[in-house]
């Protein structure tokens, strides 16, 4: 099976690259933005045709949530228009498409975990464009899977875990919101799940996947500090004390019943995965 990973140098794309040697029955093609810009539809078509791609795993996205408010056109181009074209081209070649979306498609007004059937109502440009991407993916490609995930972090790329480590080391203290509740997701766990799906029965549709458990960003930051063994103070603040261009949902925990039942999987607890990731970051720092 020939698998194309787009956006291959981001957090999730890099985790796929690292895991790829463990899946020797697949033939991987890793394409970063520099080698395949998903906004260029003809380049995408040529790539899929030239390499006989069976599955596209689309890790390319515009993920700068605040910047998207000032660059809605650029954000929509990558997150929506390009994905629409990817889905269309994948379908032309009878290829499958696995695409990722976000908990930010919800407005956060619920206080129990969101299922795939819950109404969406994105509050900011990033979430609006990702919601549009879900619809076009499922509408235009027969063999498509959309996975909504949340609060992704990794050894690779930019993420909240690394921001906390940096802030504590540089400043020694930081305020973090405790009134936004969700679930962190270790990109490595998500990548493993996707690769295992490809080796079992692929059942198209919309799924929620995050790690298990629930926390606020404040709790997440405190746990990062604990596992990293860093001194300093992390104190709880309200969202209005951390003004941001894009509003975030107050509650965006994803219900994972569908994915667990369909694929008969166990999902790691967020605290255990965070510990693993921080060990990996620290092993690398100590080298
Ligand atoms: N990060 C998170 O917290 C969450 C992410 N998601 C979703 O998960 C998926 C993966 O996210 P993540 O790995 O964190 O994202 P990253 O921002 O780490 O990686 C995205 C990658 O896409 C690349 N890219 C941007 N534009 C294009 C383009 N036009 N053509 C090809 N590549 C492009 C970027 O390259 P460059 O850096 O050079 O621009 C970057 O390497 C995305 O769909 C995202 O929306 C969902 C929920 C949470
Ligand atoms: C860095 C920092 C953030 N915060 C707050 C701001 C925000 O409400 C929350 C998270 O901060 P960030 O801006 O790092 O994260 P954010 O960009 O909102 O993360 C989101 O990214 C996109 C791509 C997704 O799809 C989402 O699932 C989610 O992971 O924590 C603080 O309160 N203090 C801080 O020092």
Notes on the protein architecture:
With 287 residues, this protein is an alpha/beta fold. The chain has one domain: NAD(P)-binding Rossmann-like Domain (Rossmann fold). The protein has ten helices and twelve strands. The chain has helices spanning 11-19, 41-50, 65-70, 72-92, 125-140, 160-170, 187-199, 217-228, 257-263, 270-285, and strands at residues 2-6, 27-31, 55-58, 96-102, 144-149, 152-153, 173-177, 181-182, 185-186, 205-208, 215-216, 233-237. The strands form four sheets. It has a six-stranded parallel β-sheet with strand order 2-1-3-4-5-10, sandwiched between helices. Strands 6-9 form a two-stranded parallel sheet. Helix 6 crosses helix 8 (217-228). The mean pLDDT is 97. The structure holds NADPH dihydro-nicotinamide-adenine-dinucleotide phosphate and dtdp-4-keto-L-rhamnose. The site of NADPH dihydro-nicotinamide-adenine-dinucleotide phosphate has 25 residues, from helix 1, helix 4 and strand 4.
């Amino acid at each position: 099976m020939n698998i194309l990973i787009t956006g291959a140098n981001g957090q999730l794309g890099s985790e796929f690259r690292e895991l790829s040697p463990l899946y020797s029955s697949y033939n991987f093609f890793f394409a970063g933005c520099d080698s395949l810009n998903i906004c260029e539809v003809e380049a995408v078509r040529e790539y899929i045709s030239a390499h006989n791609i069976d599955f596209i795993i689309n890790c390319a996205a515009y993920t700068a949530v605040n910047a998207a408010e000032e660059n809605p056109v650029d954000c929509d181009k990558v997150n929506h228009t390009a994905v629409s074209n990817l889905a269309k081209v994948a379908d032309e070649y009878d290829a499958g498409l696995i695409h990722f979306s976000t908990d930010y498609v919800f407005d956060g007004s619920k206080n129990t975990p969101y299922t795939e059937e819950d109404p969406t109502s994105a509050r900011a440009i990033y979430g609006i464009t990702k919601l549009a991407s879900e619809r076009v993916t499922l509408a235009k490609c027969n063999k498509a899977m959309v996975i909504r995930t949340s609060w992704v972090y990794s050894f690779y790329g930019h993420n909240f875990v690394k921001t906390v480590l940096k802030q504590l080391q540089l400043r020694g203290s930081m305020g973090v919101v405790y009134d936004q509740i969700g679930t962190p997701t270790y990109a490595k766990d998500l990548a493993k799940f996707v690769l295992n799906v490809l080796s079992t029965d692929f059942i198209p549709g919309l799924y929620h996947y995050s790690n298990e458990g629930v926390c606020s960003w404040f709790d997440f930051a405190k746990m990062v500090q604990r596992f990293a063994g860093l001194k300093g103070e992390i104190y709880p603040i309200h969202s209005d004390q951390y003004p941001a261009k894009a509003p975030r949902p107050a509650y965006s925990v994803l219900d994972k019943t569908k994915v667990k039942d369909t694929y008969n999987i166990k999902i790691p607890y967020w605290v255990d995965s965070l510990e693993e990731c921080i060990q990996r970051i620290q092993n690398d720092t100590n080298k």
